[in-house]
Amino acid sequence: MSGYGQYRKKRGKATARRQAGARPTAARVEPAPAERKLTLLIVDDEEEILKVLERLFRRHFRVVKAGGGKRALEVFRAERPELILSDQRMRDMTGIEMLKAVKDAEPGTIRMLITGYSDIEAVIEAVNHKLLDRYITKPWENEQLLELVLEGARKYLRNAGVRPGDESIYF
């Protein structure tokens, strides 16, 4: 349930108790598990693309960015994002190389690749080796890209659901 939904649910219970004449007590109030947005790591060596994608996703996800594959691996280790959206062609390493390292470290991470038609052979190989959950071809439509990433988030939640310590995650 979203943060707002839980707020309304708690508020409704408190209102019902007040109307019944009951006063809320500390013994009755149960703390809700901590909630946070899913984290999406966006990887591209073009700063303008990073900015465009961040604007597209920031309402739905906690967005972190990396300007290349090697930097993405550093950010991945520090942030542990649930989803990664990466460009294939970058100066320091390919998106597939970076996503392979991510899969080895955290197989449950949803891995998505943006690629041009010229890279299709590499994408087919990555799909066959289960390195990708989804690939998106350039150019993309923003609405379609958003829906594909939201679909990836739903898949992650179906497979993972709750993090250690009862921390609920949502998007």
Note poorly predicted spans.
Answer: 1-8, 14-18, 23-33
By CATH, the topology of the largest domain is Rossmann fold
Return the structural class. alpha/beta
Largest sheet: 5 strands, parallel
The tally of beta strands, per DSSP, is 8
Strand order of the largest sheet: 3-2-4-5-6
Helix-residue proportion = 40-55%
Quickly count the domains: 2
Structure report:
Residues 1-8, 14-18 and 23-33 have low confidence and may be disordered. Strand 2 (39-43), helix 2 (47-57) and strand 3 form a beta-alpha-beta unit. The chain folds into 2 domains: 1-32, no CATH class; 36-170, Rossmann fold, CATH 3.40.50. Helix content is 45%, strand content 20%. A 5-stranded parallel sheet has the order 3-2-4-5-6, with helices on both faces. A 3-stranded mixed sheet has the order 1-8-7, with no helix packed on it. The radius of gyration is 20 Å and the shape is globular. It is built from 6 helices and 8 strands. With 171 residues, it is α/β, with parallel strands linked by helices.
